[in-house]
Amino acid sequence: MKRFAYGFGFETPKQWIANRQYGWDDEDSAIIMIRAENADAARAWGREIADASVRRLFEHAHAQELPNWQEEQYADWIEEAAPESDGVEVVVGELPDLDWLGA
Amino acid sequence: MSRLTLILFALTVAHGATAADRLIPVITGTIGDRTYRTTIDLRSTTTEECRFEVRVGGATLHSIEPVEAGKPKLLDEFAGELQVVATTVRVSCTGSVDVHSRIHESADGGATYDGGPLFRAVVPEPLVAGQKLAMPVSGDFIVAEVHGAPARVIATLTATSSNRVADKKYDLAPFGERSIAMASVLRSLGPIDAKFEIAGEGRVIILPSVTDPAFANRAPRAPAEIRARLNAQVAAATVPPPQTAPSITQRLLISPFKAAPFREPATGLVLMRDRWYDPSTGTFLTPDRVGYRDSSNLYSYCAGDPVNCSDPTGRHRLIKRKVNGLEFELLAPDPDEVRRGELGMSGSFINPYTGKRDSFSWDQHESELLLMLARWGNPLMQDAFAQFFGMSHDQVDVSGARLYWNSLWHHKTDIVLSSGLTVAMLAPQVRYVSPSMLRYTQRTAGGAGRADTLRESMRTNGWNGPPIDVIETPQGLVTVDHTRAAVAQELGIQRIPVRVHMPNEPLPPEMLVRFGPAVRTWGEAAALRAAGQRPPLPPTGTPTPPRLPKPRGQQ
To answer: A-chain residues within 8 Å CB-CB of B546?
Structure first.
């Protein structure tokens, strides 16, 4: 298995509200290390992680509506992880602690 | 001259600094055409002893002063026998003692002195990650980040009866500060010992917050009734309420002259002075003598007639801008002319005190002189503002006034009175740059369909919107507006308008909503955006443009 860095953009609950109210475009982003057979598998699993993690952010904020990260169409990318890169790491099929983006 | 209590210093073996040591500024003697003396004020609820240590000409001198419980002790002409000293004195006391110094300045060779600003002794150096500080807590305190990087303060508060009170974490944005209220805890549990530990890249100063009303009553230049009257007048002029208008304390915290904050007990102001603090040497308070070289010019500021000072040449842009709810009309001079020192700035604004339009004008040289005056709380500055606003002398407290001019960035002059009123400010410049020249503080942009909307618009109309906001840094222009710049770059648009801000330029009120109340400057806003990336980007961002989502249908 190879080690990939999967990155994705998202809006925090505060940004989600303010961007729509004032027309701003603020986004946060996060990178997670995923061990997978290939980049496609890593990316597909990364999107599941992004969706679940962002949903958890909004749950913490007691949002009335939980966004669907994949439908909202944020930028994401996949690249082979540099050997020295660290951070949260999972294998395909494994979810990280979903609070990793912060409460 | 008030009573004379000389404090005698003796030659001593160098005393090793401890975490409990504090520094306090002291100036004595004649420097340039000014004469200074310093009064030290010691107060404690218990009988204690304080040791003062000062370095003069390579020697270290010390003195011991007893402090009786409940009896304020005043040391007038502190270190006066040392002739000329402009430095800091290291203070260590056996217990909890409030130590303040007031620096009095005389323009007539010592015949008369002004009240002078009051400084509180502070811990000498900011704490960095891994360092710990233990100190008794006898009131509210303030934690402030002074390096420009995020920091976390972990505080363990323990009642002296050894019962733990709480573990607290205070996250600080770059240059952020938090005031920690302890009054109710102290009332119910009595004295508290606090241990502070720092995490993150920031450097943190922990300051006691001064609430002693006795000091406010002794304030020579800002008695409470005058401040109240000023506040009432400002309120009547519909200046925004405090929650939307940055306070003078907030503004001073973001001052380019920040070195170490001193809180003025009488006014609650934190004074930042660029030459006053060098933690590597422990010496401060080197006055800029250039400021007094041409004393005749000290009087030339508007010559008591600032309304007629303005001399528009017709070569300037007229900019209308609201600052702190005050309307300004500014004639922005050509930056090259300013850099050459050929032209200063001029403009006009609605005077909140008179309701009439006033104008102002000064050149760069005068600005620098005014800066010196502002730093030293000089009465001449007070006179100038009093005349400027058509107010009586004692209605203007300039002890917290700040003024700067930084031609390295672009021209900008700014004076802030202690009421929080900004009396002069140049609008930021608009330039045209290639989006490929920008630095970005996000790794992604354009989510939720924003990129697609802009792609469609820019393909049809090109750039069709207001400038984006960028911050000028030594690394380059840093933006906090990403999608438009990234889409423009994707579409090959080579020239986009940017509105250039200085890093320490206060955010307008609408941006305070965007970035939160803890973020007060454009530089902090960029740092916040960069810190929101995981892992964080440097506070000045990256030249790599943010990734955009692929156009809908191509994913």
So the answer is: 9, 27, 75
A85 touches chain B (CB under 8 A): no
Q: For B473-531, where are the alpha helices, taking DSSP H only? A: 483-490, 509-515, 522-531
For chain B, what percent of residues have pLDDT higher than 70?
46
Q: How confident is the model at residue A7 (pLDDT cuts 50, 70, 90)?
A: very high
Pick from B443, B481, B552: which is nearest to A25 by CB? B481
Distances (CA, A) of B513 to A58, B56, B245, B253: 20, 50, 12, 19
ipTM of the complex: 0.94
Alpha-carbon distance B4 to B56, whole Å?
Answer: 22
Q: In chain A, what residues touch B533 (CB-CB under 8 Å)?
A: 28-30
CA distance B143 to B139: 13
B149 neighbors B171 (Cβ within 8 angstroms):
no
Phi and psi of B248, rounded to 5°?
A: -60, -35
Cα–Cα distance, B270 to B221 (Å, whole number): 16
Give the whole-angstrom CA distance, residue B245 versus residue B133.
Answer: 33
Residue B117 vs residues B3, B51, B190, B398: alpha-carbon distances, Å: 19, 23, 32, 10
Distance CA B481, CA B173 (A): 20
Per-residue tokens: B539? 């506070």
- Is A28 in contact with B534 (Cβ distance < 8 A)? yes
Model pLDDT, residue B127: 81
Q: Mutate one of A12, A21, A28, A29 to test the B interface: name it (highest B CB count within 10 A).
A: A29
B544 lies within 8 A of chain A by CB: no
Bridge partners, residue B48, by sequence: B67
Q: pTM for this one?
A: 0.41
| Residue type for position B165 | V
CA distance A11 to B448: 9
> A31 and B534 in contact by Cβ < 8 A?
yes
pLDDT (tens digit, 9 = 90+) per residue, B295-317? 222 222 222 222 332 222 222 33
CA distances from B488 to A28, B37, B496 (A): 21, 60, 8
